[in-house]
Amino acid sequence: MGIVVVEVCDGNSITEINIEEILEQEFPEVAVLMNECLSFCGLCRVRPYALVNNKRVFGNTPEECLEKIREEIKKELAVYE
């Protein structure tokens, strides 16, 4: 398990890209968890999002959301440097 956990609802449009493979290859410290539901009812239908160490990260497109997730991961990892 990584020191940064990214949780994704499998009904979310961010799953259009292979976020798990992308992030885990780019950041070995990250664990991506695909969940059936993150209990933010309806949010996954509105726009792409994920939880990064329990912080919600949003984007208008899956690609924009991925970039914001990367930024949040870098902030989280900075604590350990």
From TrEMBL:
Pfam families noted in UniProt: DUF1450
Domain of life, source organism: Bacteria
InterPro entries: DUF1450
Record-given protein name: DUF1450 domain-containing protein
